Amino acid sequence: MFESVVASAPVILLVAVRCFALIRTLPLFSSRTVQRIAKVALAGYMAYAVYPLVSLKDGPYAAYASYFTSGGGFTQEYIFALIGEGLIGIMIGFFVTIIFAAFSTAGQFFSFQMGFSASQVYDSMSEVENPLMGEYFNFLAMLVFLQNHLFNEIFLKGLVSSFKVLNVFSLIDHSENLALFMMQSLTKLFGDALVIALPLMGTLFLINVCMGVLSKAAPTMNLMAEGFPILILTSFGLLVWLLPKFMELFADNFVTGFSLLEKLFLSLGGNGA
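Above: the chain's sequence. Below: its structure in token form.
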């Protein structure tokens, strides 16, 4: 087995670069708290599991066969092929990050209405400042991601499918389809975020309208002191009540996103040039 791995080292390296690029951009796994040696080891295990499905005789990787010299060295074209494989892995990880960003954006939509406009926390996964409720939804999404074994879905449906049908030439030949897909993904991000946040946003909007009417009817009432506690208590009550629905919605969004990613790979094709 070790001799076959050494003999197939150029192919395994191509596979490993795509796997490592995915790990480096995938939420949770790309965090600095995950040790680099663990990322390299996981990418190596993934490459070892996938490379039997890859062949230089047929399939998308057949376009790379001419890049290996007869003496076993690497050509300049092979280096560019490695870069292209890394870009494919980054593309997959970026799309999964978009799915997570929808949940975080939903928390940002109503975080300011709750009265948490000044509460910013550091998100160790994305390494940016995030509103408190956005970070809460981000942790819920990560819990759903791990509980439902969705990393296996990425590995089986996303990564393995990409090796069967996709190479760097496919990205070049169908760059317009890829750009259109990414734009549609960003549009879907804000659409999903609005759907998730709409119940809370609508309820908080009605509360603000009622407080505005009361402030006109009874100007002596101190609505600033009473309004924020009402908003916060109502918001947390709705979050507890809607939590099961949120969990189902998060899981459905993940499954839908992975299905769209698989369809993208099929639409791009992998024949190469």
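The two ends are 32 Å apart (CA to CA).
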